[in-house]
Amino acid sequence: MILTSGGLNTDSEQNYPFLYHVGNINLSDSAILFYSEGQKWVERLTGEKLPSELCMTSSRPWERDPTTEPQDPLEVTPLGTMILPDRQILESATDRFFDCVLGCIWPLPDQVLFQKTMDVAYGDQNDSPSRTHTARICVWTTWAFISTFPDISTDLSPKKRGEVVNSIMASINLLQQPHIELLESMSMLVVLHLNSGDIQSSILSNTVAARFVLLLGANTRECFKSACRFVSLGDEQCRREYHLRNLFWMCYIQDKELCLRSNQPPALSEYNCDLDLPIDYQQNYNSSPSDDNCKTPVFAGDLRLNQLKSKAYCDLYSRRALEKDGTRILREIRQLDGELEEWRMSIPMNHRPTLLFSQGTGYRSDSFSIRSLMMHLEYYYCMSYIHQACGRFRLVDGTEDQEIQGISSSLSLAIATCRSSLYYLLEVKHALSPGDFWLVLFYPLSAILTIFCNIIAHPSAPEASKDLTIMRQISAQVRELGDREGEVSGRSHNTDRVWKVVTSLEALAKNTIEKHSP
């Protein structure tokens, strides 16, 4: 949100109304309007209150609200009593997963290692009960995970999948010995929860996954070197370490994403991790992965961009960063902005996000993929996230004009990148599937909240009406995609809540503009 935590004297507030004052609040929380300080600020500017049903909730608008979930029975079927999926059907489904681009974007199970996991789980080897239990957890989690992809047919309905996930969660003993199969399982659970809007469960699973990463050494230089030997020499003895590094990067990506979505500190610290990229990673940009040619992990989004997201949080929004003075914050913003632009220019042209995406810009449909989608959305959010931090700068008498211009420029850029995010989503809406709803919802809603704040702070500005139009268009898109997701998942009450959020903000922005019209 573009809000200040420092107070302004009266003259400064009148002369520089782009700075908003709502008290001492952590600015990385995009749901600030749903706290009492933000609600008072909205009421002061608009003369209206946000609807109470939007304010009295323990979750952010891009999360499933657990208080509205149907009350399921407390009994959970023990995993040990559940009959494993037919192995032949499971192998057929996983083969389809590994043979298409999905296995490259989500390299959570490994094709060779998973065969060994199935051997143990299905009793083909004489293993201990503990070892068999771990393998069964991995098999069930993999089955639940791949069932979320429409292109891979399984007999697991969304309701049944939820029951399986509950059984998996209840069966994991956090005191058991760390194992690569447990890391696989926890990493897949993170994605399952994240893609269904259950952010809190995703955070809990991510915390456990991060601990397993450290205990198994997936974060180390030694593991990276072994992974390089596997890629360069085909040394099968290093396959486990190669897979551990893929799991490390998946955990790292999820960890940074959850940090931004939840405003909670990350579980993995860069100070304890080797961040050398996979040696074949950059080459993956030279061609668009397809179902036929993708053989190496490309991940969703970009690993280097995730490193920048993490740095932005640490430098601008962490507890230690909140103690920095305004001048240092502005310096950090300039440095991060330069690094982000350097990253953008390093991306091949056919995948590179445009600096700003405007209406009618268009996109290359031949290069569209989930990786491209997430890269664009994450880039625009990261740009806005960085520049919104200037709202913490406290204007006092004697503030230099250069600093004031820098703040104004940053705030304008933050709003412009929010518009870019929304325009981009409108452009690619036909390529989005119901399964993308909870994954991408965070980006339009956080952008809408920022634009809403800008509208009610400047209702007479020339851009206000255009921004209101964008909000309406995105509201319609969110409703359409949410309805489709609700039909698939059977949880339409959660998507209804999202619709109430966006339509209420839209109506409030419209009323504010009309009140200030000549």
UniProtKB/TrEMBL annotation:
Q: Which GO terms describe its molecular function?
A: DNA binding; DNA-binding transcription factor activity; zinc ion binding
Localisation: Nucleus
- Lineage: superkingdom: Eukaryota
- All copies of the Xylanolytic transcriptional activator regulatory domain together span 202-284
Record protein name field: Xylanolytic transcriptional activator regulatory domain-containing protein
Alphabetically list the UniProt keywords: DNA-binding, Nucleus, Transcription, Transcription regulation
**Species the sequence originates in:** Penicillium salamii
The cellular component terms of Gene Ontology attached to this UniProt record, alphabetical and capped at eight, are: nucleus
Sorted alphabetically, the Gene Ontology BP terms of this entry are: DNA-templated transcription
- InterPro entries this protein is in? AtrR-like (IPR050987), XnlR_reg_dom (IPR007219)
